[in-house]
Each structure stands twice: as structure tokens, then as C-alpha cells.
């Protein structure tokens, strides 16, 4: 009986030691208080997270944290994004944070969207109100909301979110500014042309050819007659931001209407990516002034209108 009691006592003591050791390993990291935005990438696996937490000195032990997370949050995954953590948090508090919604979310904006489309995307991702979306849409910097992947705080003011886009745009276009200046082209002109290229191209492979055709038309004072500018005028949230063009649209009264007005539209019609910005600067040398895309998105250009009409018959009828 005494042996059994001793065995039980030893077991309790050992269990207590183990529990105490694990508790020590799961307690807050000592030291000066540090606030950290812990970023979980879109490719990161849950199994990698404890090691990353140890790297930034937010936990004491990887194995203990993994065991603890399995116990208190079974079956839960960590959503990619940013989490506001600090060095005073225990493992319990960190696990609780990581298994709830992130405070910063990943948002990917593709090339060629207009600002209202980006506003709709941000509204969904950041939980914006209709007033916040309206504030976004009221901004005038079309063409400068650079398409990229962003990690955005869900509680950040609309103006601050917009500034992130502008900062990325300035960073990306900076290497091209001197090249535009050397060719006596305003960078704002380059962005307008890039926005047209982005909407008119079937892919990166034909961007420089379309750029060459646009420059050819501008150089001979020919109206651009680009359908995408009509779509920009007509677009809205109810009928679509890039609606189908009909012949009557060519008479729309707008400074963006390149069928009525010679030269470039009064502003960019989309937010172009780097390939289009570079294409506007380095157009393909061509004699073509007309082009169309066949249903397979292959471009067909022509020098004369008669050739263009023949292309219409061959590829679109």
C-alpha cells in the first residue's frame, strides 16, 4: 500500500513538474513590451507559424506552442493576413488572436480595373460602409491606384488606404520618369496611353504593338476611336463597369469620347500595370493604324481602312 501511495505521489509530482514546465514555456516572453504585426503569407502553412513566432521572439518554445494550439484550437486554421500581437501575450492569447479574423487582410488588385471596381473589392475585403466606398470613388487619381497585392489594415481610413496605392504607384513608375522626360513625354501622358493599352490588349504580347498604333494615330492627328473609352463613360455598378458598346455610344458627350474628340481622353480610363506603362514608352515600330482582336484574342493590324474591313470580314463575321 505504501508503495502504491508513493507511486501515485511520484506521478502527481512528475505531472505537476511537466505541467509547470509547459506553463513556463507557454507564458509571455520576458523583456520590454514590443508590438508586432505578425504576417501570415498567402502561401504559409499552419505548421510553419510556430517557428515564425519564435523567430520574432513572441513564444518560448515551438513544440510546446504546437501542442498547446492543437489542444485549445483543434481543427482551426490560421487565415492569411496580419495579426497585431505583442510580447506580453501568453500562448493562450496568441492562439486566440491567430484563430480569429486578422486585423490586416491581403488584397490583390489586377491590372486594368477602374477605381470604382477597386473600391468595390476593397469594400468587400475591408468591410467598408457605402459612405466609405463613396469617399474612395470621389478621388480623382484614376490611373494611379497601382495594381498589386497589398496587406491592408481593416480599420485604416480610406485616405490612408488610397495613399498606400499612390505610394506603390510612385515607387513603380519612378524608374520610367527619366525615360519619359528624355523622349519629351509627360508621365501623365504615358499613364493615359498605358491605361488605353491595358484595356485594349489581349495580353502582354500585343501591348507594344497597340502602343505603336496609338502613337501612329496621335502623330497624324487621327482620332483614336477606342471603344474602351466609351465603356469608361457608360460604366456603372448596375449595368457593369465595362459594358458592351453600341454605335450610338460614339456620339456620347464626354471629354473621354475618342470618337468625337481628337487626341487622348481627358484622363486615364483604368489603372495599368508595369507592362502597359513600359509599352507606352517603348512602342513597337509599325505602319499599322488599325487593329482588331479575333475571338481567340489574337491581334490583327492593318495599314489601310480597306485592309481593316477585310480583317473584320475574316475574323469577326
Give the key terms.
317 residues, mainly alpha, Dna Ligase, domain 1, 47% helix
Write up what this structure looks like.
This protein is mainly α and 317 residues long. The protein folds into 2 domains: 24-102, Endolytic murein transglycosylase (Dna Ligase, domain 1); 115-286, no CATH class. 47% of the residues lie in helices and 9% in strands. It is built from 12 helices and 6 strands. It has helices spanning 2-26, 49-55, 62-72, 91-98, 115-126, 130-137, 158-182, 187-200, 207-219, 227-234, 274-281, 305-315, and strands at residues 35-40, 81-86, 104-108, 149-153, 290-293, 299-302. The strands form 3 sheets. Strands 1-2 form a two-stranded antiparallel sheet. The protein has a two-stranded antiparallel ribbon with strand order 3-4. Strand 5 and strand 6 (299-302) form a beta hairpin. Helix 7 (158-182) runs parallel beside helix 11 and helix 8 (187-200) crosses helix 9 (207-219).
In short:
The protein is mainly alpha-helical and 317 residues long. The chain has helices at residues 2-26, 49-55, 62-72, 91-98, 115-126, 130-137, 158-182, 187-200, 207-219, 227-234, 274-281, 305-315, and strands spanning 35-40, 81-86, 104-108, 149-153, 290-293, 299-302. It has two domains: 24-102, Endolytic murein transglycosylase (Dna Ligase, domain 1), CATH 3.30.1490; 115-286, no CATH class.
The separation of the N and C termini measures 99 Å
Q: How many separate helices?
A: 12
- Unreliable spans: 3-20
Shape: elongated
Strand order of the largest sheet: 1-2
Largest sheet, in brief, is: 2 strands, antiparallel
The figure for the number of domains is 2
Mean of the pLDDT scores?
Answer: 90
Residue share in helix: 40-55%
What string, H for helix and E for strand, traces the elements in order?
HEHHEHEHHEHHHHHEEH
